[in-house]
Amino acid sequence: MNLVMMGTGSFAEPTFLKLLESTYPVVGLVTQPDRATGKERGSSRLARQGMKEIALERGIPVLQPESINTSEGVASLKALAPDLLVVAAYGQILSKDVLGVASLGGINVHASLLPKYRGAAPINWAIYHGESQTGVTIIRMSISLDAGDILAQEAVEIGPEETAGELEARLGPLGARLAIETVTRLEHGPVSGIAQDKSRATKAPKLTKEHGLIDWSRPAVAVCNQIRAMQPWPTAFTFLYRQGQEPLRLMIQRTALASREREQPEAAPGAVTTDATRMWVRCGDGAYLEILDLQPAGKRRMSAQDFLRGNVMPEKSWMNGVDAL
Predict the structure, then answer these.
(1) Domain 209-324 fold
(2) What are the structural domain ranges in the chain?
(3) CB–CB of 208/44 below 8 Å?
(4) How many whole angstroms from its chain centre is CA 37?
(5) Are 173 and 10 in contact (CB under 8 A)?
(6) pTM value?
C-alpha cells in the first residue's frame, strides 16, 4: 500500500517519521511552499527538522504547490500513484478531485476530540476555552472541514500550566501512533467509522496577531488561559501605561493566579500593583494575575523582577487602561 504524506510543521513530523519507519512505501510528501517558520511566518505551527528536509534526506519526492487543488496539483499527485493519503496539519482543504486520487482516499490526523475544535488551531482554542482534556482524532477525510467519520480517537489531560506549544509536543507522537494503527487496519480491509455529531461541533479558526491582545476585564483564569494558548505564537500582549511616559508594549510570556485577592477594592481591571520584585494585574472578576515573565518591545524575555529593576513604576500604572490614569 503506497502512502503519500501531506503535512507541515512539528505536529505532522512524528506521523511522517512513523510512516517512514514502517513497512509501507512512502512514495511522496506534499507540504507547504518554503516560507519563514514559527514567529517569522505568523503562525502557531512550529517546525523542528522540517518535513521537506526529512523527505529529501531519504530521497522521497516532495511537492510544494501553492494549491494542491489545481489541475496541475492533482496531476502531480496522481503521478505518485498513492493508495492512501495521510494528512496532518497540511493547511489546505482538499478537494474531491484530490481525495479521489488515492484508491483508499485520505485519513486526517487532527489534534482535538472531534467534533470539538474543527479548524486550523485546535490545540490553542482548547486551552483558550479552559478545557481540561483534549486529544487526537483520526478521521476519514471528506470535502467538509474536519467533518469525516471518526476512525480512532484518544484523549489526554491538559496540564494546568501547559502552553499550546508544550501540548502540541505531546500530541504529535500520539497522532503518529494512532495514524499507523489506522493505516494497518485499512490495509486489512474496510474500516467502519463513527459519524460525528454535528450538533456538538465547535470551531478552531486560524490565529491572528490580534488574538493575542489581552482584555483585562475578563476573569483572571480566562486571561491566564489566553496567555498559555498564544504560546509560541502570536504571544499574548498588552500595553503598559504610566503617567508622563509613552505606552510600552509588553508580550506576556508566563503568569500565575494570585494566591489571594489583593486588597484594592477600588481598583479597576488592568490596574498594576508591584513591590520590589513582583507585579500583579487586576482582572475583571477582582482577582489578580501575577506576571512572571514578560518581554518589552525590542528587548529580550525577562522575569518581572528584572523588568522592575530597570523600570520605575509610578503609584498608578495600568495595562490597557489609559482612560483610568
Answers:
(1) Methionyl-tRNA Fmet Formyltransferase; Chain A, domain 2 (3.10.25)
(2) 3-200, 209-324
(3) no
(4) 14
(5) no
(6) 0.93
